[in-house]
Design brief:
single chain, globular, 39% helix, 350 residues
Length: 350
């Protein structure tokens, strides 16, 4: 994430800021330019969701719905008559804006959402429903032909933490959910549409393995004993598609965190990252430079979190095999020659 300043007084503001706390200027984020802009009196068209859920984005061009680039991607919002759903929806949209920020940063294709168009990215935010017979109709989080469905219960910290513990996950965040699920969408666009299946199978395995059977086996038997050397997470071991989506999400974690570290001028954490020659982790930075810069950041930030009694900032191990999968995602995003994965399983991060 970049660093943002108030355009009027130069005071530090956040990506989500609606108002500068120093000079009280109303602010809006321009996704095309990647800057924070003053809203007062400059005829900027703010998102129609600004008042209700605090979306601070500005429309780059007229849109009949009055919704910004990010909010336009949502095709179903939760039932707002249910207590707490406005806040849940706001949290989901806040996390989605960070996802869209990264998609734009990478220059990935993002066509306007259109219902029924399987090539476009759409989001449905739904909650479980109690049927007339008293049974509960569960909403499952997942991806299906460009449509990403998220159960709004995940916006509740207590629910998300309960699921994290039950599934033995070190991470379970809204931003992580979005980054993971969008990995499935971009698998369709960047692997399937480009007929890059063979390169993908070389790195992740054969996605033609029955998905339902693979998940059933995973939940019944768990991950293989050596999963930490071969997969970024326990769940990644379930099927090549999930391995890719988990790896994709972690690549987003790494790049956005490195941009944040660089933006806030943390040179002691970035001694291995050549900011002079590679000013943006999102564009034009070789993967080996990203990985080399990531190691000291994770070590330092893990210690920072431990200093205040918090869980590790990045509690994951990147073996050479996992790093090669991350390199594959990097090449896929930047349209480079797709690499072959390593197989020695040596650890390159902590």
């Amino acid at each position: 994430m970049r660093r943002f300043l108030c355009p009027d007084c130069g005071h530090e503001v956040y990506f989500e800021s609606l108002t500068c706390v120093s000079c009280n200027s109303s602010l809006g984020y321009r996704p095309g330019a990647g800057i924070m802009s003053r809203v007062n009196g400059n005829n900027a068209q703010t998102c129609a969701n600004r008042q209700q859920i605090g979306c601070n984005w500005i429309l780059e061009q007229p849109e009949p719905s009055g919704l910004c680039l990010s909010c336009c991607l949502t095709t179903t919002i939760p039932d707002l008559s249910v207590t707490g759903n406005v806040d849940r929806w706001a949290r989901l949209e806040r996390a989605k804006r960070r996802l869209v920020y990264s998609i734009l940063g990478f220059g990935l294709p993002l066509p306007p959402a259109m219902a029924g168009d399987l090539k476009t990215l759409r989001f449905d935010f739904k909650g479980d429903a109690v049927l007339p017979d008293g049974e509960t109709e569960r909403v499952l989080t997942g991806h299906d032909n460009g449509l990403i469905t998220l159960n709004i219960a995940e916006a509740d910290d207590a629910v998300r933490e309960k699921h994290r513990v039950a599934l033995h996950e070190p991470y379970r965040t809204l931003v992580g959910h979005f980054r993971h699920e969008v990995g499935h969408y971009y698998w369709d666009r960047l692997v399937a549409d480009r007929n890059a299946h063979e390169a993908f199978r070389w790195a992740f395995g054969d996605e033609r393995e029955d998905y339902g059977d693979a998940l059933k086996r995973h939940y019944e038997q768990g991950a293989p004993a050596d999963w930490r050397q071969r997969f970024i997470s326990h769940y990644a071991s379930s099927h090549p598609w999930e391995d890719f989506a988990e790896t994709w999400a972690h690549y987003f974690h790494i790049v956005d965190s490195l941009e944040t570290a660089a933006a806030y001028e943390l040179p002691t954490l970035l001694t291995q990252f050549d900011m002079e020659h590679y000013p943006s982790p999102y564009r034009g930075t070789p993967f080996h430079v990203l990985l080399k810069g990531w190691i000291p950041v994770t070590v330092a930030m893990n210690e920072m979190n431990r200093s205040v009694g918090q869980p590790d900032f990045y509690p994951f191990v990147l073996s050479n095999t996992i790093a090669a999968k991350l390199a594959f995602v990097h090449a896929l995003i930047h349209d480079d020659v797709l690499p072959a994965p390593g197989a020695d399983g040596q650890t390159v991060n902590m």
